């Protein structure tokens, strides 16, 4: 992934949100609020006025998907590179831990963090973020659906995957499903297509998100 590809991904994947602010500026129209310094310098524009504007703000990224450990080597490699560059430009990246959300500080261990990730539901991530003072609009929660979106864009921009960049879930026989269901049902969002298939038909072994 080169810099041009990263910039395109950054724009397409909306890693920022718009925040409304009041921006002040000086004008020559009398507003009732005189800027003393500008007045003393005999500047024509010495009256302060305010405009409502929006500015892009970097989202806090929370990794939650149970599927992180099932990415193939190339997918994980590109995802790690993307996350590293997001961290480098100032995004905070968090992973679930026993004490809540833990911010990733060591980029060298980033890939290891993905492999040992303890998945949580989106609603849990939002609640934990609130405890740390992070507003919901300032969050980018990388659940399985968001992970699918990211891998699709990586396919289009970087072009490293087969099968259109689609995530194909691992084959799970009925015994595996019965064994894993108690654990997975607590960490997979109910709106995820895989969760519905998982519960409905244990004989369907290779569902995928679309």
Describe this structure in words.
This protein has 210 residues and is an alpha/beta fold. The model is unreliable at 161-165 and 201-210 (pLDDT under 50). It is built from eight helices and six strands, in the order H-E-H-E-E-H-E-E-H-H-E-H-H-H. The strands form two sheets. A four-stranded mixed β-sheet has the order 5-4-3-6. It has helices spanning 3-12, 36-40, 73-88, 110-115, 122-131, 144-157, 174-184, 193-200, and strands at residues 16-27, 47-58, 60-63, 93-97, 100-103, 139-142. It is elongated and about 70 Å long.
List keywords for this structure.
6 strands, 210 residues, alpha/beta, single chain
Give a quick rundown of the structure.
It contains 8 helices and 6 strands; from the N terminus they run H-E-H-E-E-H-E-E-H-H-E-H-H-H. The protein has 210 residues and is an alpha/beta fold. The strands form 2 sheets. It has a 4-stranded mixed beta sheet. It has a two-stranded antiparallel sheet with strand order 1-2.
Which spans have pLDDT < 50 for at least 5 consecutive residues? 161-165, 201-210
Question: What is the chain-wise order of helices and strands?
Answer: HEHEEHEEHHEHHH
Enumerate the strands of the largest sheet in spatial order, edge to edge or round the barrel.
5-4-3-6
Main sheet summary: 4 strands, mixed
User: Helices and strands: which structural class?
Assistant: alpha/beta
Number of helices: 8
How helix-rich are the residues, as a percent range?
Answer: 25-40%
Beta-strand portion reads 15-25%
- How many β-strand runs? 6
N- to C-terminal distance: 24 Å
The Rg value, from CA coordinates, equals: 23 Å
Tertiary shape? elongated
Overall pLDDT level: 78
């Amino acid at each position: 992934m080169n810099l041009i590809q990263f910039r395109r991904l950054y724009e397409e994947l909306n890693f920022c949100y718009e925040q409304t602010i009041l921006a002040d500026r000086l004008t020559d129209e009398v507003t009732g609020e005189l800027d003393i310094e500008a007045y003393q310098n005999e500047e024509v524009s010495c009256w302060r006025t305010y405009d409502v504007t929006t500015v892009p703000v970097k989202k806090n990224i929370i990794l939650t998907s149970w599927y992180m450990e099932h990415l193939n080597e190339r997918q994980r490699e590109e995802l790690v590179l993307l996350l590293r560059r997001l961290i480098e430009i100032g995004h905070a990246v968090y992973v679930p831990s026993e004490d809540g959300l833990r911010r990733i500080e060591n980029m060298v261990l980033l890939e290891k963090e993905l492999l040992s990730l303890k998945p949580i539901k989106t609603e849990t991530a939002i609640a934990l973020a609130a405890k740390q003072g992070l507003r919901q609009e300032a969050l980018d929660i990388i659940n399985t659906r968001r992970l699918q979106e990211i891998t699709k864009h990586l396919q289009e921009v970087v072009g490293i995957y087969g099968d259109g960049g689609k995530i194909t879930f691992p084959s799970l026989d009925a015994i595996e499903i019965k064994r894993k269901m108690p654990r997975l049902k607590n960490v997979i969002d109910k709106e995820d297509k895989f969760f519905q298939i998982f519960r409905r038909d244990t004989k369907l072994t290779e569902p995928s998100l679309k």
